[in-house]
C-alpha cells in the first residue's frame, strides 16, 4: 500500500460535513489513479442526503456506486466527478474522464468505471453529465413526438436540459415553466419559451414535471390535455404530497408515470446499457456549449464543508466544485 493519501468530503451528521484523509493505493492491472479536476453538486439528491432525508426503504437504491458509509451519516456521497488519469495502463494516462465518484481529491477505480470525455468537451462543462443523462432518460420515458405541445414544469438543471432536448424535435412547441423569473433569460438563451405558473399553457399533449414541489405536480395535472401523459421526474424523498386525483383526472383519462435514471426504459434496454447512455450524454454536452449557462457558481473544494449548507439551500442551478492543480 502506498502512503499516497487524498482528502474526501464526508457528511458527518445531517447538515454537517468535514474533510477526511483517506489512503489511496497503487493501481493494479486494469486500475486507474485519477486526480479530480471538478465535481458537481446534484442539488436534488444531495440535498436529501445532506439533510438526512433518505427514506430507509430507499437506502439501498440510493447508494452511489463508490459511496462509503451509510445513510444518514457518516457517509461519503456524490456521483459527478471529472478527473485526469495520473497512473494506470499507458493508453489511459493523461486522459480526462468522467466517473460516478464522490467529492475526493484523488481516487483509485477500475478502468471500466470511467468514461473518457469527447475531445471537444471541456472538463468544466462535463460536470453536467449526470444531469444530461437523466434528461435523456426522461425524454425516452416521455416519448415526445414531432409537433406536440410539451410543457416542462421546473426550470432546474434537469428540467431545462429535458426541455432543450424536447425542443430539438421538429415541430414541437415546448414551454418551460418556473416560479423564478431569473430562469426566463436562461430559457431564452437556449431558444425555449418560458412562462410563470400563472401564465402556463393548458391543453398540452405531454407534461414533464421536474420542480420537486406539490404545487408543480398539481399544475402539471391542470395543464394536461385530454388523454395526455404526465412524466414525474422529481423525487420527493420522504415527503408526502397531496394530489387532486378527483376533479378532471379521470374524465380526461390522464396518465401519470414516474421516470428514474437508475433504470433504462424497457423499449431501449435491448440495445442500450448505462455506458452507451452516458457516452451519448457526454456527446450531447460537447455538441451544446450553450448548456454551460446552467453552471452558475463554483466553490473551491477546500471550502466545501462550510459552503455545503448554503449551496444546497440556495436557488441556483449546477454548482461546480473546483480542485487545486
From TrEMBL:
Keyword Transcription: no
Keywords: Metal-binding, Oxidoreductase, Zinc
Cofactor: Zn(2+)
Transmembrane segments: none
Database matches in Gene3D superfamilies: Medium-chain alcohol dehydrogenases, catalytic domain, NAD(P)-binding Rossmann-like Domain
Keyword Hydrolase on entry: no
Similarity annotation: Belongs to the zinc-containing alcohol dehydrogenase family.
Name the record gives this protein: Zinc-binding alcohol dehydrogenase
Amino acid at each position: 500500500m502506498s502512503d499516497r493519501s487524498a482528502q474526501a468530503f464526508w457528511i458527518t451528521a445531517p447538515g454537517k460535513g468535514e474533510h477526511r484523509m483517506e489512503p489511496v493505493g497503487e493501481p493494479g492491472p486494469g486500475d486507474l489513479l485519477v486526480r479530480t479536476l471538478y465535481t458537481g453538486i446534484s442539488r436534488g439528491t444531495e440535498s436529501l442526503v445532506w439533510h438526512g432525508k433518505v427514506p430507509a426503504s430507499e437506502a439501498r437504491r440510493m447508494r452511489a456506486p463508490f459511496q462509503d458509509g451509510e445513510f444518514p451519516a457518516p457517509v461519503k456521497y456524490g456521483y459527478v466527478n471529472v478527473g485526469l488519469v495520473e497512473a494506470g495502463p499507458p493508453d489511459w494516462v493523461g486522459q480526462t474522464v468522467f466517473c460516478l465518484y464522490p467529492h475526493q481529491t484523488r481516487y483509485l477505480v477500475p478502468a471500466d468505471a470511467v468514461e473518457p470525455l469527447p475531445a471537444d468537451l471541456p472538463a468544466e462543462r462535463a460536470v453536467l453529465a449526470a444531469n444530461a443523462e437523466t434528461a435523456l432518460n426522461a425524454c425516452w420515458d416521455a416519448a415526445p413526438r414531432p409537433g406536440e405541445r410539451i410543457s416542462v414544469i421546473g426550470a432546474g438543471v434537469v428540467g431545462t436540459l429535458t426541455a432543450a432536448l424536447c425542443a430539438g424535435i421538429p415541430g414541437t412547441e415546448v414551454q418551460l415553466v418556473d416560479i423564478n423569473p431569473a430562469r426566463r433569460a436562461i430559457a431564452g438563451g437556449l431558444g425555449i419559451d418560458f412562462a410563470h405558473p400563472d401564465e402556463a399553457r393548458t391543453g398540452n399533449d405531454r407534461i414533464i414535471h421536474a420542480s420537486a414541489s406539490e404545487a408543480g405536480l398539481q399544475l402539471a395535472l391542470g395543464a394536461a390535455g385530454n388523454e395526455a401523459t404526465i412524466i414525474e421526474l422529481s423525487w420527493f424523498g420522504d415527503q408526502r404530497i397531496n394530489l387532486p386525483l378527483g376533479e378532471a383526472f379521470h374524465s380526461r383519462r390522464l396518465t401519470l408515470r414516474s421516470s428514474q435514471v437508475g433504470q433504462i426504459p424497457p423499449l431501449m434496454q435491448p440495445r442500450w446499457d448505462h455506458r452507451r447512455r452516458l457516452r451519448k450524454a457526454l456527446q450531447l454536452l460537447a455538441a451544446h456549449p450553450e448548456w454551460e449557462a446552467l453552471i452558475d457558481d463554483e466553490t473551491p473544494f477546500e471550502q466545501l464543508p462550510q459552503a455545503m449548507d448554503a449551496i444546497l439551500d440556495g436557488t441556483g442551478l449546477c454548482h461546480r466544485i473546483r480542485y487545486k492543480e
